Amino acid sequence: MKRHSRPQLVIAVLMQVFQQFTGINAIMFYSPVLFQTIGFKNDASLLSAVITGTVNTLSTVVSIVLVDRVGRRMLLLEACVQMLLSQALIGILLQVNLKSNNTLHQGVAVLVVVLVCLYVSSFAWSWGPLGWLIPSEIFPLETRTAGFAFAVSSNMLFTFLIAQAFLSMLCHMRA
Fold this sequence. Notes:
Blueprint: H1 6-21, H2 24-37, H3 42-70, H4 72-97, H5 106-124, H6 127-138, H7 141-172
Helix pairs in contact: 1-6, 1-7, 2-3, 2-7, 3-4, 3-5, 4-5
């Protein structure tokens, strides 16, 4: 908590907060519900969750390969744009095409799945691993354990808050 450690502490905590505010846990926790909402049956919604998990895992390899070549900043900025565009398109598609009985035309539903996978992949090569890598690198050795403990605690707190809030938001919002 000393003055010389505050910039690293603020960066580490904000990296975790922003990582959670990207919406990844809402997608990963509730993707079966989301895919059921857009018209997939029970088996297809579970398959969609497996697909997003596979995309997440494979895209993390991209981060491992590119992080030192391309740089942390470039990966974070590129992914922010890609995540924003994919989520905006998903919202627009659902707002325009989702019928009152929670069904979509099959082509639109497949496009939503592709956009969700695009979103998950951009998170998995940027904010996912870099949200943990950057805080581990910025603290000096004497404060790394305490600083990282604050970062992890803030991650868990915001994971809990988003998990609690998202389902009621999903039930109240049309898209």
